[in-house]
Amino acid sequence: MDTKLRGFVLSVYIVFGLPVITAHNDPSNKIMEDFSGYPIHEPQSQDSLLSLSVDSEGLQKQIDELSTLSETPAPSVTRILYSEKDVLARRFIKNLMGLSGLSVREDAVGNIFGRWDGDEPELAPVSTGSHIDAIPYSGKYDGVIGVLGAIEAINVLKRSGFKPKRSLEVIMFTSEEPTRFGISCLGSRLLAGSKELAELLKKTVDSQNISFFDAARFAGYANHLQDLTSVFLEKGSYSAFIELHIEQGPILEEEATSIGVVTAIAAPASIKVDFEGSGGHAGAVLMPMRNDAGLAAAELALAVEKFVLESGSIDTVGTVGILELHPGAINSIPSKSHLEIDTRDIDEKRRNVVIEKIHQSALSISENRGVKLSEFKIVNQDPPALSDDLITMAMESACQELNLTFRKMISRAYHDSLFMARISPMGMIFIPCYKGYSHKPEEFAAIEDIANGVRVLALTLAKLSLA
C-alpha cells in the first residue's frame, strides 16, 4: 500500500476512532494492528499493549536522578532559575533528548526544544512539554513528568515502529515558577510574544539585586543581547500542544480514575497592595488615635475571602499569600503593610468583578482607617484558556483504546499550557498524585500512574501527528 494511503487509513481510523468494517484480510488492518499492538477484531488484552510499553524503571530512575540536582536536601527539591543546579538539570535534559535521537536547540532565555522530524516536516509540528524548575522545598514530580514523560512518550512511539507525519517536539520551558524574578511562566509567556515582559526583563532584578540578564548569562543564555523578541513564536507555529502533569489536587486519586482530560485552565490575576499609617508605640498610642496599617491589611484580607464567596461559583478562588508588616516588632504599631493577592477563575469576567471589589474595598478601608493606600497594582491579569475540542477528543479516544478510566476536569492551577494556547490549540493530561499534594516534599505520583499518562500522551501525539 502507498505510504500516503497508509497514513490516510491510520488518520481516519485512529484519529477519528471510526469502526473498522473492512475485510479481515485487508492490508490496512495489518498496518493498524502493527501500530496499535493488538488485533482489531478481538478484545484488547493486557499483553496487547506491549507495543506502547513504557520503560517504567528507567523513567523512575530519571525522575530520581533529576531530583538530586537540588539546592536543598532530599526529600525536598529546590531548583531555581539559572542556578548551578538548574544549569546541571538542563544539561541532563538535553542529554536525554539527544539519546532519544531528537535534534536539540535552545532559545535566548533557555527554553529547550527536542524535535523528531516527521515525514512531512513542512507541516506545523505537534508539541508537548512542561518545566523542571522547582520552588524551594517542593517535590520531584511537578512539571518534571511533563518533560521526562514527554521524552519517554517519544521513545514509546519509536519502539512501536510509529512514523510521524507531522514532526513531534518536546519543550522544556524556562521558569514556570515565579521564584527568582517574581514572573510565572516566563519562558512560555515570551514564546507567546509578550512584548511587555520582554521590556520588563530589561530592568528586572532578583532579591540579591542580580539582573535577569546577568543571571541568564551565567547560565549561558542571552548572549549579551537585550532584545528577546527572537524568542517569540508566531501563532500557528504548532498544530497542537499537550502537557502531561500531576493533578495537584485530590480528585483523580479519590475517585480512582486514571486520567484527567483538562477542558479549561483557570487564569490567575495577581495584585500587590501597600498601606501606610502613622505607626507608634504599642502602649503609648491610644486606640482612637491609631492609623494601623496592619489592621487595614487584615481587613482587606478578610474582604478578599468575602468577595470570592459572593461570586456564587466554586471555580472562583482568592488567596492572600503574602502579608508583611513593618517594622515587625511586637511593641510597635505597624506603619506599613504589604499584601500580595492571587485570585483565579475560569470565567474572566467573574474574576475581574472580584478584582474591582477588592480595589474598592482597599479604597474604603484606607479612608475609614485613616491610612494611605500607597499602591494597588495589578501585576498580571491573564485570560483563562479553553482546551481544544479536537485535542480533548483525541485524549479521550486514547484513554478508551488503552482501557483507562478518565474524567473531564478543570485545571485550577495554571501552567505553561495557558500561554501556549495563544500560539496553538492546547490540551492537558492529568494523572493522580498522592492526596493532591504538590509544592511540598510529600508530593508523589506512582510510577504506574505516570506510565499510564505517558501511554495516553504517546497515543495522543500519534493521533495528532497523523491529522
Automatic annotation (TrEMBL):
Main location per the UniProt record: endoplasmic reticulum
Annotated catalysed reactions: (S)-ureidoglycolate + H2O + 2 H(+) = glyoxylate + 2 NH4(+) + CO2
GO cellular component terms, A-Z: endoplasmic reticulum
Catalytic activity, EC: 3.5.1.116
Cofactor: Co(2+); Ni(2+); Mn(2+)
Assigned protein family: Belongs to the peptidase M20 family.
Position of the signal peptide: 1-23
Name of the featured protein: Ureidoglycolate hydrolase
Quaternary structure and interacting proteins, as annotated: Homodimer.
One family name in Pfam for this protein: Peptidase_M20
Locations listed in the record: Endoplasmic reticulum
Manganese in keyword set: yes
Species of provenance: Olea europaea subsp. europaea
InterPro entries: Amidase_Cbmase, Bact_exopeptidase_dim_dom, Peptidase_M20
Highest taxon of source: Eukaryota
